[in-house]
Amino acid sequence: MKARLLIAGCCLLLAAPAALPADEVFVTRGAGGPVFSDKPQPGSKPVQLPPPNVMDPVPVGRPPTPAGGTPGDAAGRGEAAAASYRRLAILFPEDGGAVVANTALFEVRLAVDPPLRLGEGHAFVVAINGRPVEQRFTASEFMIPPEFWGDTLPPPNQFHQLDAAIVDGADRVLLRARPVTFQMRHAFIERRRPWHRPPAAVPPRPPAGLQPSPAVPSPVLHPGLPQPMPSAPPLGATPAPPPPAPLLHPGLPLPLPQAGSQSR
User: Distance between CA 207 and CA 168 in Å, rounded?
Assistant: First the structure.
């Protein structure tokens, strides 16, 4: 324990400013080990310190120019690299289409001609609604990372704009693709209710205190017997038939009218 305290005190003294004279450091034996101070204490002894180790600063110059010439030459190479790409297009999401992404994670597919020149540090960069995705992609198919949205997901059934471009090692844009507008939707699983048999029809009940009239039994018909004649209508239901006309025989005189009748 005392050795550790001694080493710590020496390190503290070595880290002291160089302007501090070496003969102004004193050490006192304490209960827990040596105690160093810049003021003399009763029973303290001066400590002779070695001269501080001072190193000369290293001069910092301009960074070396990359092989190939001046920055103007680098710009010329960037223009030549941009001219080498003939086509960059966004295949998915389709323009005016929709993607199903409940967690806002969806795939992006690009088409580039000729292939991406990875040896020169070229990569794809994309932006959604003008906000760049802080990641470089070297494959033509990739997923939007979940860190892009953070803790708040976008609302469903909203339109978004996707931009894509090719950049070089210095993040200079070499070629841009035509942006697309797509809709991000959420998928929901509808739970079907279990099927139940409908309850049997219950005949209506008569009001309290009334009994239903018994059903009239149907007549029993026996094969080979004539069907029963319909019942005659009740009296007074139909008018009485007129009296029959008298029979007249040719060559005989007309009958006399009855008493009480009027002659025509």
Answer: 92
Task: State whether the Cα torsion 114-120-126-127 is positive or negative.
Answer: negative
What is the C-alpha to C-alpha distance for residues 120 and 138, in angstroms, rounded to an integer? 12
Cross-strand bridge partners of residue 173: 167
What are the residue ranges of helices labelled H in the chain? 2-14, 71-84
Q: Is 122 exposed, middle or buried, given 0-12, 13-18 or 19+ CB atoms closer than 10 A? A: buried
Pair of tokens at residue 124:
């794809």
- Given a cut of 80, whether residue 63 has pLDDT beyond it is no
What is the phi/psi pair of residue 78, to 5°? -65, -40
pLDDT at residue 264 above 50? no
Rg (CA), the chain: 57
Mean pLDDT of the chain: 76
Q: Rounded to two decimals, what is the model's pTM?
A: 0.44
Q: Which residues contact residue 96 at a Cβ distance below 8 angstroms, ignoring those fewer than 6 apart?
A: 180, 181, 182
Q: What angle do CA 181, 184, 186 make, to 5 degrees?
A: 165
